[in-house]
Amino acid sequence: MFRFLKAFGLLSAAALGAAAPPALAAGDLLVAPTRVILDGSRGTEVVLNNIGSAPATYRISLEIKRMTAEGGLDEIAGENVTPAERAALDMIVFSPRRVTLPPNQPQVVRVGVRVPEGLPPGEYRAHMLFRSVPDAAPAAAAGAKPAGTGVSIALTPIYGITIPVIVRVGDPGAEAAIGAAWMSEGADGPAFNFDLSRTGSRSVYGDIEVTRPGVAEPLLVARGIAVYPEVGARKVSLRVAGEVAAKLKGPVHIRYSEDREIGGGTIDEAERVVK
Predict the structure, then answer these.
(1) If you ran DSSP here, which 8-state letter would residue 17 be given?
(2) Which residues of the chain are modeled with pLDDT < 50?
(3) pTM of the model
């Protein structure tokens, strides 16, 4: 597991081309699964767990996020949502909406959907946000004198996790194709990049495996790579260690496969020469 330890930061599954593990952690909150798909026939559950040493309170809500061509997720203000996005917000139901968790105490959030009659076939998506609620600031000790005449500001980290909740009406289809691949060097070190395009009426989601010709052991594996319907293509950028970056240059085989939980079948695969 990994933690996201930045004030006012949000962690989002399948964003920025990052691998999506079976559970996400931010601050002291653990959430599983990292992705929910509903077809209207039955609901499901999301499990929260406080892995910290003190009780913590979390508020649960829905919001709209749209994928960018760089693979990020932009939050969309309520007045700018489309009718399809509004439909997703209206038909996804969940309970409870606020929880207080003692340390190492799990809590089930029940998630369901009420598909309105006549809703056109397709994929509808909102993102479920689990945001920490900070404790009230303790009152200053009686009679305490200020240390100086300046203004003092205390920042309280507010942690959050978002996971996509996808509703599929009918049987929407999609295909994906791997495009050009290349290496880059940034402030955070080397990265393996490639273009990933999508056609059809729903998202694609799966795992990436990069191998060298004639070598079975993969050089790079990334889980939970998604392309959502609002974009026809995105760039996937995966940070790698320096020794791996050198091995990724030259001819490679890239395979994009379905999530292992639904069989792991190949979505697309391609031979590329990486520079």
Answers:
(1) T
(2) 1-11, 13-21, 139-142, 154
(3) 0.82
